[in-house]
Amino acid sequence: MFCGAQPVSVHGGPCPRCFAVLNRYPYTGGHALVAPNAHVADLADLDAPTMTEIMEMVRDVQKVLQEVVHAHGYNIGINLGRCAGAGLPGHLHVHVVPRWNGDTNFVSVFSGARVISSALGELLGQLRAAGAKLNLPRLTP
Question: What is the mean pLDDT of the segment spanning 32-55?
Answer without folding.
Answer: 93
